[in-house]
Amino acid sequence: MTSKAERTYTISQLAREFEVTPRALRFYEDKGLLTPRRDGMNRVYSHRDRAKLQLILRGKRVGLSLIEIKEILDLYKVDQRAQAQTALKKYKSRIVALEAQREDVDAAIEILHDSVKQLEEFLAKPAAPAAMANARAFEAEAKKRLQDAH
């Protein structure tokens, strides 16, 4: 029976498990983020490669660049404590950035709600007769231009 550390995966298995394309896995390999061994023309991914892929996708999900992700992954070989410290620093920085974005999004949503309310109130009122006449004249002119264009 193979242990978890000895288990291997094909590109198709990892792509299916993590809902990514094989092309994405090859891209991460080209960028030096994954280093599967080769068995002829086939890529053979280890349990460690699988764990790296999980970290890559998690990092991308929270907005880290591939360079930042690679920096974190590369530190594993050198010093796991330094890797953890670097990851912690980058994660805290992303939290600050995402919280600021959330405040901006919340403010934009509030502005939109206010605008929708004002527009709905405006449109709920009956139009003034002069406005109705202007709207009809605009419609008639638009129809005439459309007919002249054909």
TrEMBL record:
Residues 81-108 form a coiled coil. PANTHER family: HTH-TYPE TRANSCRIPTIONAL REGULATOR YFMP, REDOX-CYCLING DRUG-SENSING TRANSCRIPTIONAL ACTIVATOR SOXR. One of its GO terms (molecular function) is DNA binding. Transmembrane segments: none annotated. The keyword Coiled coil applies. It comes from Candidatus Viadribacter manganicus. The keyword Translocase does not apply. InterPro entries: DNA-bd_dom_put_sf (IPR009061), MerR-type_HTH_dom (IPR000551), MerR_fam (IPR047057). Keywords: Coiled coil, DNA-binding. This is HTH merR-type domain-containing protein. Residues 8-75 form the HTH merR-type domain.
